[in-house]
Amino acid sequence: MTAMTSDAAAIGDRLARRNAVILAVATALAGANTTVMFATGAIVGAQLAPVRSLATLPISIFVVGLAAASLPVGMLVRRYGRRTAYQLATFAGMLTGLFGYLGVTLASFPVFCLATFCAGFYASAAQSYRFAAADTASDGFRPKAISWVMTGGVIAGVVGPQLVVWTKDALPPVLFAGTYIGQAVVALLAGVILSFIDIPKPKPAPAGTVSRPTIEFFKNPAFVTAVICGAATYMLMNFVMTAAPLAMIGCNHTIDDAAYGIQWHVIAMYAPSFFTGSLIARYGAPRVVAVGLVLTALSAVVALLGLTVPHFYAALVLLGLGWNFGYIGASAMVAATARPEERTRVQSVNDFCVFGVMAIGSFSSGKIVTTYGWDMVNWVVFPIVALAAVALVMGARRQPVPA
């Protein structure tokens, strides 16, 4: 590496560190918005849905919002830059709170589902914060930049559930009305925080470079493996977590018990991010993903051992840890397969695939937990973990195609 290249990398890493700190705060606020929906969506759905099997439909609509926004957010980033695109997305976060308030005060299930769709749109943009911090980072610092941003989720794991506990009865007699107003305020604050990021617009392809069609991405074994592992990890996390609050209420545990269960789950999702990047740099992303799959399977084992509050909490913590290693590892694998000028497009395609698979799992979660019970939700985990493990082993045996 020449001295000029080394200096450029150092400058890029300094900017990446600054942006990572700002994006970590924005992740905390956006994550709090999402955590509120995870903690309350199925409970409100059970109150408002015309039939009980549709109780988790609002969370499924949230996932549809995630998938639907992944490509549009990528296009906004390419056209206007990350700062403008992300600030526009926080408007969807404010609409989440306002529609959520209207949904519960008017006892309207469709309006509440509209709120969760907006929440999914906002969360989709927030998911790409991890890639934004990597835009100016060197190859060596990129995994750490991604994990730095993810640490904001630790704060989200505290703020979101506490927002539910403190505000659920703030505007009586309507449960959670005050919570959703709080959501709108948090999203507004996130928009202000995001005005301070400094990320150059994505570079156009070099002169004479022919842009690769999307299908070419899927000819890269490393990309396909990363997508499969990321999709499996995220789908299982959402699948089990969506059903957990409803299962806890069904086992006569309280709303606060369910909210704190989600709190420990979200903290476990993001707390390892302080060192996940270092683990990836030292041992490689595939090994970290493998650990994530093992932890996800262990969470199902614990959940099947009992229905007490500690059993739920331990299972949700293991589920969160499994998501962290599996998803951040897969994200690092995706980032390594992209050329600089096509990074946002590759990330958008990855997120569309991941969230599309999530939607399928989320739609089935409510039906399974209300018809077959909490145990069946956890039995579903094992074959999907096995499928992802096979893909990871097969991908490791094949020679990856360089970006």
From TrEMBL:
Gene3D superfamilies: MFS general substrate transporter like domains
GO molecular function: transmembrane transporter activity
Major facilitator superfamily (MFS) profile domain residues: 184-403
Keywords: Membrane, Transmembrane, Transmembrane helix
Membrane-spanning residues: 21-49, 55-77, 84-102, 108-125, 145-165, 177-197, 222-250, 262-281, 288-307, 313-337, 349-370, 376-396
Pfam families with a match to the protein in the record: MFS_1 (PF07690)
Protein's UniProt name: Putative MFS family arabinose efflux permease
Organism: Phreatobacter oligotrophus
Lineage: Bacteria, Pseudomonadati, Pseudomonadota, Alphaproteobacteria, Hyphomicrobiales
